[in-house]
Structure formats: C-alpha cells, structure tokens
C-alpha cells in the first residue's frame, strides 16, 4: 500500500487534535483541583475558627471577663462570615490574638489546664493548624503545576484559547514549618 | 535516652563471660564434630577398601553411614544450641538492660517503657497486610524471626525480620517443579503514628545501587499495575526528599498533613544513615518501614568474641529503637491519643 501525502496530513492532524484534547482536559482538571484545594483551605479555616471560638469561651468561663469575651467572639463570628478570603484570614488572626491574650491568664488558673475540654481543644487547634498548612502547601503545589504548564511551550498556547491567567501562590509563614505547639504560640 | 554500649556492657558483663565459656565449649564440640565426620569417612574407607572381608566391609559401610549422619547432626545441634544461648543470654539481656537503664523524661510521669522478644516469632500476617507496603496477592509464603515488640513513651512498636516468598514454576526437561523465591527480604518495622489519618500513603525508595535494587524498582511498577490501586503520585516541596522517595497517596491533603516539613527532613536523615533502600507506608494507624537487606540479625558466630557480637546486636537494636525519637513519634500535640 502506498502512503499518500493526505494520509500523513490526516495522521498529523489527528495527533494534534488528540494532544489538544488531552492538554485542554489537563488544564480543566488542574483548574478544578486548584479550586478544590482553595475550598479545602476555606473549610479548615472555618474549623480552626470554631475551635478558637470554643477555646476562648472555655478560658473566659473561668475568668472575670466572660461577658466581654462573648461579645467580642460574637462580633468576630459575624465578620468571619464575610465571603472575602482575606477578611476571613484577618478575622481568624484577630481571634488568635484574643485567645493569645486569654492564654496568658491560664497560668493563674491551674484548673483550666486540667480541664479535659480545654486540653482537647488545644490538640484540635494544633491539628487544624497543621491541616491548614497542608492545604496551603497542596494549593501551592497545584498552582505551581498550573503556572508551569501555562508558561511552557507549546501548552502556553492554551493561555489565549482558554483565557487562562497565572495564579498567585499563597504565602506560607515560616513559623508554620515547625510542628505547631499552640501553647507556645499563644504564650507569644 | 538509651545508655551507651559501654554503660550497657557493665550490666551484661557476667552474661557475656558465661556466654564466652559456652562459646569455648561450642568450639571444642564443633572441632570434635568435624574430626568425627572425617573419621567416619576415612577410617571405614581405609578398612573397607584394604581388607577384602565381607564382614569388615559391611561394618565399614555401617560406620560410614551412621557415623557421618551422627557427626552432621551433632555439628548442627551444637551450632543451634549456641545460637539459642546467644539469643537468650545476650540479645534478651541486652534488651532488658537497654530498657531498664534508659533515662526517662522527668516531665512525663506516664512515660512507658515495655518490651518483649520472641526468637522464632514474626510480625503477624494481619499486621503485614495492614502495613500497606506489600502486594500480598503476589505472596505465597511468609517467614520471619526475631520479633521484638514494645512501647516507648506513647508509641507502640513491632519489628521482625521478614521474608515474603512467591511460588514460581520452573520447568525442567520432564516435569514441572515449583519453588519459592523471596520477593521481599529485610526488616519490617511498624509503629503507632502520632497523627490521625484515614487514607493510604506510600513512600517508595528511589535509590538504585545494585541489580537487586533495579529488580525491586521494576517489581514495584509491575505489582502496581497489577494491583489496580488508585494511588496518585505527588511531588513534595523538599527537593532532597524527592531525590530519595517517590510519594503515592489516596489523598494529597492528607499526605501533606502526614509529611510535615520536619518529618520529611527526619526521614531523609534516617534514610542517609542506611545504605539499603527503605520503603515507608502510612496506613490505618501505623507508620511502617521496610528496610531491604539480606542481613541475618542477632545471629552469633563462634569465630568472633562475645563483646564484639554484643556490640553489633546493640547497634542493630538501637537503630530500631531510635526511630521513634528520630521521627518524633512521641510528640502527641494532636487529637490522636
């Protein structure tokens, strides 16, 4: 059988089309995986916020500032429901600072340290801090993969067809590199 | 935490002296065994061939047969008794001394130190399956010895030598034979992991130094294809870690939660201290390590002094006991109890 030029042309066209399909799907899958990891961060952030709220209320119950703490926590919770991610992080950090302040007082109340609920919450926060760090690292790993594909030739051609943009990496605090000990962090 | 060998040596000195006496007796019995074996072959041969008397020849054949069998049995029995005495008097005593003389953390009154040793024991088949390291549908027989179990602080651990065999057909000229070939050979170490997780994460060693390692590398790929397990390969942020290990997991978020930057550094440091490949898995509640090597642990030799051999056994034990501290498995600041 003779190989005609149109056969070669068709074979090349089919291969290019297959490659384009695979690359298109790869970009879609990466985009979705980035969204998934972002949602994961959001969920963990919310769980961490809940645990911080509970630990603040547990400590406050032993001190003279229960009412003030409760008002402050309610205020922060309404702020946390804001859909803006940066606002959420800011509110979460504010709550961390509030817990920090309360934690200083824990030294004066040995009964808090012996409280099972308090100890459990401390461990939960440690775990959530690590899960949050892991989610951030996953997000960054996926974004890096996406950005690399977007910059490499010939996959960068899809940038224009699919209207894709380079994604920003999340900044990871170097203190998160350590295994988190909330007691140490909260004591400043 | 654990005492140095010099400190331990003073605690086991009496047992070593006693063992040295057993060793001297074993050497004598061993030499006599060989003399008896040669005599059982040479003397009947001389008499049987030089004296053309049927009675003498029958007697020579009788002496040759029973003398040879008795001598071989005696040699193996002597070495077997010596081996058991070494495990009982040296390995067991070393374990006892190591655990009893360990410096426990003063700030933790609940810190536990427990140990157990079974010379002919091995890690249970159930735990081998739970480890998540092996493709058990490709395994036909499991053998092992020197099982050591215990608890250091809050971390329970188990380890033993292990050989996992696969039965293969080897076709001869006339009939087909079946033989067992070791697929995995080394030490399996399991410890309770300090973080709670649900998925399955495997770290395969990437280093290839020998033909055995090349075989291992291809076997893993072959088994992975056959097993049909849905594990995704992920790349970690630590380049040095990626140089040593390939990470495959059912859940990327969980894998990164387990493999914190600190743990990755600790695993690389541990890997660097070992010449042979190490596969690691996180499954159920365990961290499992399989150290590939053909070394026979805690096996004595009549040719070396007891001090030298006890030092080798000490170094082997310390390597495994230190894993818990090296990987910070006693850090219990997470919700897992």
From TrEMBL, chain A:
The chain crosses the membrane at residues 6-24. Keywords: Coiled coil, Membrane, Transmembrane, Transmembrane helix. GO terms for cellular component: membrane. It holds the Pfam family LemA. Residues 111-138 form a coiled coil. The keyword Membrane applies. InterPro entries: LemA-like_dom_sf (IPR023353), MamQ_LemA (IPR007156). It is found in: Membrane. It is a single-pass membrane protein. The keyword Signal does not apply. Belongs to the LemA family. This is LemA protein. It comes from Oceanobacillus polygoni.
UniProtKB/TrEMBL annotation, chain B:
The keyword Transmembrane applies. The keyword Membrane applies. Keywords: Membrane, Transmembrane, Transmembrane helix. The chain crosses the membrane at residues 27-49, 55-79. Pfam families: DUF3137 (PF11335). InterPro entries: DUF3137. It comes from the Bacteria. This is DUF3137 domain-containing protein. It comes from Oceanobacillus polygoni. The lineage of its organism: Bacteria, Bacillati, Bacillota, Bacilli, Bacillales.
């Amino acid at each position: 059988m003779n190989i005609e030029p149109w056969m070669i042309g068709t074979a090349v066209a089919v291969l290019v089309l297959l490659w384009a399909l695979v690359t298109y799907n790869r970009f879609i899958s990466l985009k979705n995986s980035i969204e998934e990891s972002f949602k994961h961060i959001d969920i963990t952030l919310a769980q961490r916020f809940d645990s911080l709220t509970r630990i603040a209320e547990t400590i406050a119950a032993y001190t003279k500032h229960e009412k003030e703490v409760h008002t402050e926590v309610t205020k922060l919770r309404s702020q946390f429901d804001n859909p803006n991610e940066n606002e959420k992080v800011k509110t979460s950090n504010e709550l961390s600072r509030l817990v920090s302040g309360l934690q200083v007082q824990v030294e004066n109340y040995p009964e808090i340290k012996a409280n099972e609920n308090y100890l459990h919450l401390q461990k939960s926060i440690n775990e959530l801090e690590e899960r949050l760090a892991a989610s951030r690292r996953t997000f960054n790993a996926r974004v890096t993969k996406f950005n690399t594909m977007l910059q490499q030739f010939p996959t960068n051609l899809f940038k224009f067809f699919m209207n894709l943009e380079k994604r920003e990496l999340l900044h990871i605090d170097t203190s998160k590199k350590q295994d988190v000990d909330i007691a140490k962090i909260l004591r400043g | 935490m654990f005492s140095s060998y010099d400190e331990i040596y003073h605690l086991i000195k009496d047992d070593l002296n006693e063992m040295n006496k057993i060793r001297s007796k074993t050497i004598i019995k061993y030499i006599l065994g060989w003399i008896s074996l040669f005599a059982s072959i040479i003397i009947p041969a001389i008499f049987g061939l030089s004296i053309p008397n049927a009675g003498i020849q029958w007697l020579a054949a009788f002496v040759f047969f029973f003398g040879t069998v008795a001598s071989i049995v005696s040699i193996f029995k002597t070495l077997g008794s010596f081996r058991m005495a070494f495990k009982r008097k040296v390995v067991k005593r070393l374990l006892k001394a190591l655990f009893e003389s360990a410096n426990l953390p003063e700030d933790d009154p609940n810190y536990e130190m427990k140990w157990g040793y079974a010379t002919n024991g091995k890690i249970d088949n159930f735990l081998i399956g739970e480890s998540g390291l092996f493709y058990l549908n490709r395994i036909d027989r499991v053998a092992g010895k020197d099982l050591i179990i215990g608890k250091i602080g809050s971390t329970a651990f188990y380890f033993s030598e292990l050989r996992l065999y696969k039965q293969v057909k080897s076709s001869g000229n006339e009939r087909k034979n079946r033989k067992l070939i070791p697929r995995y050979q080394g030490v399996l170490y399991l410890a309770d992991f300090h973080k709670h997780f649900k998925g399955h994460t495997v770290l395969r060693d990437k280093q290839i130094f020998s033909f055995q390692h090349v075989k291992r590398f291809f076997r893993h790929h072959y088994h992975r294809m056959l097993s049909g397990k849905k594990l995704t390969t992920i790349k970690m942020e630590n380049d040095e870690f990626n140089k040593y290990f390939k990470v495959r997991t059912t859940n990327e978020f969980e894998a990164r939660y387990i493999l914190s930057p600190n743990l990755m550094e600790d695993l690389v440091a541990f890997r660097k201290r070992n010449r042979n490949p190490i596969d690691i898995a996180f499954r159920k509640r365990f961290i499992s390590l399989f150290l590939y090597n053909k070394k026979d642990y805690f096996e004595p030799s009549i040719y070396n002094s007891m001090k030298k051999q006890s030092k080798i056994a000490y170094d082997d034990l310390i390597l495994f006991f230190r894993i818990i501290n090296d990987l910070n498995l006693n850090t219990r600041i997470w919700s897992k109890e």
